[in-house]
Amino acid sequence: MQKRLTILVTGRVQRVGYRGFARLIANRHGIFGYAENLPDGSVRIVAEGDEDDLARFCEDLKADDEPLILVESLMVSESAYEGTLTHFEAHFGDFQKEMFHRSELGLEYLKEMIKLQKRSLKMQEEMVSALRDMKKESRKRREVLERVIEAIHTQGIG
Questions:
Q1: Average pLDDT for residues 16-25, to the nearest whole number?
Q2: Would the pLDDT of 158 be above 60?
Q3: Where is the Acylphosphatase-like domain (predicted)?
Q4: Phi, psi of 100 (to 5 degrees)
Q5: pLDDT at residue number 92
Q6: Selection from 10, 61, 69 nearest residue 31 by Cα
Q7: In what order do the strands lie in the sheet with 2-12?
Q8: Catalytic residues
Q9: Residues 88 and 34 sit within 8 Å (Cβ to Cβ)
């Protein structure tokens, strides 16, 4: 049975590629409609398709494996199927504003990545240093064992 759903998605869903993500999911499930940002920070999705496909679409919209997206809630309402939609698209606002905000956000993510990389490199350096110390200690112990074994052989024990 064909249905039409209006889905209000809240959480960190703007400026993180959520509308494009919704388009990919819709195409995967054969869903027609659109996704658009709302002034309150949420995203509205209008979707038409088969009831089972829409159920899978809604489940995937939770974006559990997406690193930047954080869906807090999906509020779904059903209305009469119209059959007027022929594809799924992401509706965008003012191009210049959208690009400015995305560039700003991209810079913030890049800064965070650099900080994480620096912390990671520091941890790696500490690990390498610890491994070198362990290797030195291991050599010392091996030398001691070799001397003990040599002494045992020299004394004729064994």
A1: 94
A2: no
A3: 4-92
A4: -60, -50
A5: 85
A6: 61
A7: 70-79, 2-12, 43-50, 32-37, 88-91
A8: 19, 37
A9: yes
pLDDT given for residue 85 in this prediction: 93
> Strands 70-79 and 32-37, how do they pair?
unpaired
Which structure tokens are listed for 145?
Answer: 């064992």
pLDDT tens digits, 124-150:
999 999 999 999 999 999 999 999 999
Give the span between the Cα atoms of 125 and 72, in whole angstroms.
Answer: 38
Higher pLDDT, 57 or 105: 57
Distances (CA, A) of 147 to 82, 98, 137, 154: 88, 73, 16, 10
Question: Alpha-carbon distance 22 to 25, whole Å?
Answer: 5
Tokens 């905000």: give the residue. Answer: 101
Average of pLDDT values for 107-119?
Answer: 91
Q: Helix H segments across the chain?
A: 18-29, 51-60, 95-155
Q: Which sign does the torsion angle of CA 101, 106, 107, 112 carry?
A: positive
